[in-house]
Specification:
Number of domains: 1
Oligomer: single chain
Distance between the termini: 16 Å
Structural class: alpha/beta
Number of strands: 9
Shape: globular
Length: 251
Amino acid sequence: MSDVNRIKAEAIKKNFSVFGQFITLPLGGEVTELRPVLELIRKDLVPTFPDHIGRMQPDLLVIMMNPGSSRPLDRHYRSQAVAKARDINPLGQLTPTRPDNTQYQIMRIMLARDLGHARVLNLSDLRETKSPVFIQRFQSLEHHPEGSAHSLFSPLRTEERRVRMGGDASIPLLVGWGRHPGLLPLARQCLATLVTHRIVGLEIPGYPGLYAHPSPMMQKAKEAWVNAVLQRLPHAIGSGSAGFLETIDSE
């Protein structure tokens, strides 16, 4: 099979659609912008009503740090206002979303394993592009009543999490939230909810609970991450899209 690391983002995005759910939720005395889920799905698998993607069983579940620079394609899109964490609808409105470099890394994994649909979740749903600022924000929120609701893995969002993660215990869990020690409380909270044998990721030596981020700074490190994950991810998964990678390569 061709090397997926050679496939450029421009070619990848011609074949995948990206949809996200964006909401606002009062946390810590202020209205907070969250993105609870991102759906990466092959264009030919997108249903007539894209909101129905949330009802589909994905081929791969991915858990990363936070939404980063991900945003709706429509600059005028208004996030749905939610009053309480329990009111977040796991099958709520999805909107076309701009992917970032990290999501293209996940799409490369999808191409190599013929996966049609990946659901991306995060340790925290806080929309913040700068990692140090993000860590400060979530640490501050944790001190407020119900402030932990910024995370899908908080006990406050248990029912929602069950819906988003689905009931198929055979779906691999690809984890990669990075090496910052400040993430350990969120990482441990998340890992306590997961079935260990389903986890695929590159654990940081000496830092149990921290897993390498999919999109490190250096290109060689990006390629090494993809190759290492593919060595750990089973071949016998996916939606039977044999030949899909070859089609992209030939464009």
